[in-house]
Specification:
Elements: E1 2-3, E2 6-12, H1 17-29, E3 33-41, H2 43-46, E4 57-64, E5 67-68, H3 69-83, E6 86-91, E7 101-104, H4 115-122, H5 126-137, H6 143-152, H7 160-168, H8 175-184, E8 188-196, H9 197-207, E9 211-215, E10 217-220, E11 223-228, H10 235-249, E12 256-260, H11 266-271, E13 274-278, H12 282-287, E14 290-292, H13 299-303
Parallel strand pairs: 7-8, 7-12, 8-9, 12-13, 13-14
Antiparallel strand pairs: 1-5, 2-4, 2-6, 3-4, 10-11
């Protein structure tokens, strides 16, 4: 896959001289030329205005050169893991494509939990369900089959547990800042989750997502039945939903962004104009075109080219 103009974005807790020199070496290695360089986020300017957990350094290079883009991405991914920084490669379409839709996975992306594992833990079947979840997210099991297997173990769980867990959901770092800014900038936002509408709705109310698509738990007489309504939101369904929302809103696929962490997000990430693996499993990081592992979710804003001065802290 040959390409012309590229954008290379570096995100790190601190942009050291070593990180910058190794990124420069990567650019030289592939014969790329710098068209422009911008510092999008500067840690030294954030200390007094932003909580330390949100602070990040970011620099963006717009590059020119005929290269094998996949080879550059692979080299950037390896270097990212070596340097504990995110080095993200994307085609430079910024001058003629304006992203408008951002679709998110929920569990382990918007929140620091797998809700089905939390439900199982409360129901006394935590270990066996968590093991199946982990294998499914690594891509070792068929999602639908493993989902039905895990759901069956929740039969009889009291509905009151759902409300308790919803109130305790730990938000992912950077998600509140990301959502405030995406709304301010006019993006449409959606949750496309293999989890449950009950919890997606809670996040929608809390963070302001425009729409949610997830699995509907069937509850009878105040108890979880162990079944969900069809269709199950799996990898194929997520990709279909992203495309159908874009078509309905009048956006091209090039104007879409998808963010997720698990194997069941890969088709959605591949379908989107920008597909970002967030703190993802190795298989997902290797296959996604873009990946963020060190920054919070608000790192997405820098991949879109926004400067910290243009953003709400």
């Amino acid at each position: 896959m040959a390409g012309g103009d590229l954008i290379l974005t570096v995100l790190a807790a601190r942009l050291t001289a070593d990180i910058q020199s190794q990124v420069d070496a990567l650019i030289v290695q592939f014969g790329l030329q710098k068209r422009s360089t911008r510092r999008l986020a500067d840690l030294s300017l954030q200390q007094n205005s932003v909580q330390l957990s949100k602070c990040i350094d970011c620099i963006e290079y717009r590059l020119v050169g005929e290269v094998d883009v996949e080879a550059v991405r692979n080299a950037a991914r390896v270097l990212s893991e070596t340097l504990s920084a995110d080095i993200v490669i994307q085609a430079d379409t910024r001058d003629h494509v304006q992203p408008r839709l951002v679709c998110f996975d929920m569990d382990s992306t918007l929140i620091k939990a797998e809700v089905i594992d939390e439900l199982a833990r409360r129901h006394g079947v935590g270990d066996e369900v968590a093991e199946v979840t982990e294998r499914a997210m690594r891509g070792e099991l068929d999602f639908k089959a493993s989902f039905r297997e895990r759901m069956s173990k929740l039969e009889g769980l009291d509905e009151s547990v759902l409300a308790e867990i919803a109130e305790e959901l730990p938000l992912m770092e950077g998600v509140e800042r990301l959502m405030v800014n995406l709304k301010h900038l006019g993006f449409r936002t959606a949750i496309l989750s293999g989890g449950f509408t009950y919890f997606a709705r809670h996040l929608q109310e809390k963070l302001g997502f425009d729409e949610i698509h997830a699995n509907e738990l069937i509850i009878e007489n105040g108890k979880v039945t162990g079944e969900v309504s069809e269709p199950i939101v799996d990898a194929e369904r997520k990709a279909e939903l992203l495309e159908s929302i874009a078509q309905r809103e009048g956006f091209t696929l090039g104007q879409t962004i998808a963010v997720g962490d698990g194997a069941n997000d890969l088709k959605m990430l591949a379908k989107a104009g920008m597909g970002i693996a967030f703190r993802a499993k190795p298989l997902v990081r290797a296959q996604a075109r873009q990946a963020i592992s060190t920054s919070g979710l608000d790192g997405v804003l820098y991949l879109l080219g926004y400067h910290q001065q243009d953003l709400t802290p």
